[in-house]
Amino acid sequence: MVEEEVQAWRERPLDEEYYAVFLDGTFLSIRRGKTAKELVYIALGIKPDGRREILGFWLFGAEGESARNWKEVLKDLGCRGVRKVRIFVTDDLPGLEEAIREIFPEADWQLCVLHAVRDALNQARKKDREALAEDLRAVYRAETEDEAKEALKRLRERWGRAYPRIVAR
Description:
alpha/beta
């Protein structure tokens, strides 16, 4: 009974339009005879009125995250009724942005802030990471566009010479 309900939920029709769709994978313990960590692909949508909705989850077996599997997720969203997405927010998995462009050509793509900050901090010297994280936080937590621009200006002034690739992003 529960399996049929889950399957019906996973196959339900979706709205035609979403303001944003967040795509990410996470490893969860899955029991299939024995318990093992498997990658679960997850899509979360934000509707034009601001309400959030879990669009679905997908399991592709024991293989790692791939753009090919994300392309199947995107196709499934389209088959279930999604026609317009303003922006997809994802990690920077190679090929994922191209898969999005192929299935939803009018959608924009943005690197997830969490992934962008992680990538930036991984490129910085250990001694600089705490201060750099604080300056990055001032940019992405700004409450207004003007505050964000000012924080970005300070970030570029402070870190531009030491980390030109980080501040260029």
